[in-house]
Amino acid sequence: MLAGQRLDEGADLGDLHGVEPDGRLVQDQDVGIVDQGLGEPDALSLEHLLPPPQAREASARLIAILAEKIDGIADFSQVFVVAATSRTDAIDPSLVAPGRLDRLIEVPLPDPQAQEEIFLLNKTQAEQAAGRPLFADLDFRSLLPPMGGMSGAEIQEVIRRALETKAQRAGAGENVGVVTTQELLQEIDGYRRIKEVVEKIRYGQYL
Q1: Residue 81, φ and ψ in degrees, nearest 5
Q2: CB of 129 within 8 A of CB of 151?
Q3: How many CB atoms lie within 10 A of CB 132?
Q4: Looking at 5-9, 50-54, 162-166, 181-185, which range is the least confident one?
Q5: How far apart are the C-alpha atoms of 98 and 106, rounded to whole Å?
Q6: Which of 47, 66, 124, 129 is most buried, with most CB under 10 Å away?
Q7: Cα 139 from Cα 22, distance rounded (Å)
Q8: What architecture is the 112-202 domain classified under in CATH?
Q9: Where are the domains of the chain?
Q10: Tell me: the pLDDT tens digits for 168-207?
């Protein structure tokens, strides 16, 4: 998480010519926080949308506008700009210059105990939404080792894919039961293989 200095309450974060911040102003004891006001700042590269030359030009304009907004922060204000990203390597250096997003708060990946808690929380939410059991008794001694290094969002995605697979099979007329440990292990393996390919594409290593 990247935290910047305080923002003048009169500033307009939404006026970024194409950038649509997803943040909201949260008031707590007279302290305002622009919660995820910058969304994923690494997305400002635009290389996922445009050819490299146009992407660099458009990105430079957007970053200049964003930097100008951050530079307009007033010292007396009690509003802070906060950005969050999982790709610090893709952040433009000008955004983390002194006086801008210059405080780095690292949120580490969950340990095995936290992963199990995250899994159970998502499992409970899914079953409450469905109004019925969706999972068999799960063997976390088998699930946790291959889940090592996975974030909460990735665990949630594995659960979503497992349930989606069940729904697709049921829609095809199959008599499907609840999600088992073995099926989750297959989803984890499939997710990791896809992620590896995506990472290679992202860094130009995929042939």
Answers
A1: -95, 130
A2: no
A3: 8
A4: 5-9
A5: 18
A6: 66
A7: 38
A8: Orthogonal Bundle (1.10)
A9: 2-104, 112-202
A10: 999 999 988 999 999 999 999 999 999 888 877 776 766 5
